[in-house]
Design a protein that fits this description.
The chain is an alpha/beta fold and about 280 residues long. It is built from eight helices and 14 strands. The relative contact order is 0.17.
Length: about 280
């Protein structure tokens, strides 16, 4: 079951949807692939008591090689700071691309709290562990050179994705992610995503949480596996997604690329369970 589609472009410029919490990650500010304009539009139209920035907000890997910081990227930062001034709590959990921020754990900058990880309790009492997730990625931990190489190839695909979608836009077609399509077609990538999700689920269970919220792999997901919630808020270079909590504690993924909200928490499929048992 899915919520009826609502086109954000048809909303009033003054219409703001408020949630109890919003989780967003993987902006990759400082890169050409960042969809800063769409992200800024999302931030203008959505607000929350608490906003969690779940890592890879600024792409330090790219900025070390080439400085890219258009006005739209600065506008995103200013919008978040504006929300803090208006009373929104903003919590920043750095990832691998912005690992430089980890040295500032437990500091507060412009009202934004920096934590290596944190937790959130939903309105209906579920305790969620919040982590970017890169520490459970073996490539990042044990073969960082390979991660850097993969980042170069990924940047190339994102560049192709940008020009492809400019053409699609001129033809009146909606946004489509070439990088996500390739990712889901490559067997090893699918196996990696599945393994990553299961490791996070197992770790959340071991820590005594009811679920986990993460980012890192750029694949939005919201499902329950053996009583543990796995929530990935996606990204803002490919899928343009965020995770939200409504006032009653229910969770949903907002897909800003297709103006759709995925409502029910998806239980583990038989195929998922088969993978866990393997």
């Amino acid at each position: 079951m899915q919520m009826p589609r609502s086109n954000p472009s048809s909303q009033s410029s003054h219409s703001v949807t408020r949630y109890r919490a919003i989780w967003i990650s993987d902006f990759h500010l400082g890169t050409a692939g960042c969809k800063a304009e769409q992200l800024l539009d999302f931030l203008k139209r959505h607000d929350a008591d608490t906003i969690y920035l779940v890592g890879d907000i600024v792409d330090g890997w790219r900025l070390r090689k080439r400085w890219t910081w258009p006005q739209s990227h600065n506008d995103v930062v200013q919008k978040l700071l504006y929300k803090v001034r208006k009373g929104t709590r903003v919590v920043y959990v750095p990832g691998n691309h912005d690992e430089f921020a980890r040295q500032y754990k437990n500091h507060v900058f412009g009202g934004i709290e920096v934590c290596l990880e944190t937790e959130h309790t939903t309105a209906d009492g579920k305790r969620l562990w919040i982590t970017h997730g890169d520490q459970f990625d073996g490539v990042i931990q044990y073969a960082k050179w390979l991660a850097y190489l993969g980042d170069q190839l990924y940047t190339l695909v994102l560049a192709l994705n940008h020009w492809l979608n400019r053409l699609r836009n001129r033809l009146g077609m909606r946004y489509w992610s070439l990088s996500q399509y390739l990712k889901y077609k490559v067997k090893d990538a699918v196996a990696f995503i599945t393994a990553f999700e299961q490791v996070l689920i197992n770790e959340a269970r071991r820590k005594g949480y009811d679920g986990v919220v993460c980012g890192h792999i750029h694949k939005a997901e919201l499902r329950e596996v053996d009583g543990i919630l796995y929530c990935n808020d996606g990204d803002w270079v490919e899928s343009l997604t965020a995770l939200v909590e409504r006032s009653d504690g229910s969770l949903a993924i907002v897909d800003w690329a297709v103006s759709d909200t995925i409502v029910p928490i998806r239980p583990a499929s038989q195929q998922d369970k088969g993978k866990q048992a393997a």
